[in-house]
Design brief:
- There is one protein chain.
- The protein has 91 residues and is mainly beta.
- It is 9% helix and 60% strand.
- 9% of the residues are buried.
- The chain has a five-stranded mixed β-barrel.
- The protein is globular, with a radius of gyration of 14 Å.
Length: 91
């Protein structure tokens, strides 16, 4: 059986995997019944976003492995690039 990341990356061509990246900022805010988690990664100006049903321990300063895909969001009429996270694991 293949490890999960390899199977995901093979099945979905747009997914990207980053290993051992350092989280500079981790914010959590409630949006309806979900908690929107936003990560900022060292040497990267694009936010990494994902939703979870509850708050988690802060990942700030931690090394993580991420699987994500690029996306675009419209904020106040401007289109910005974001990364939609599929999987986060501590390194």
């Amino acid at each position: 059986m293949k490890p999960v990341p390899e199977a995901l990356l093979k099945k979905h061509a747009n997914l990207v995997q980053s290993e051992g990246v350092t989280v500079v900022s981790h914010t959590q805010r409630e949006v309806g019944e979900w908690v929107l988690q936003t990560l900022m990664i060292e040497d990267c100006d694009v936010p990494f976003k994902y939703k979870r049903p509850k708050r988690f321990k802060s990942l700030q300063g931690q090394k993580v492995n991420l699987i994500y895909y690029p996306a675009k969001e419209s904020v106040a009429g401007f289109e910005i690039e974001v990364m939609q996270v599929v999987r986060v694991r501590r390194y």
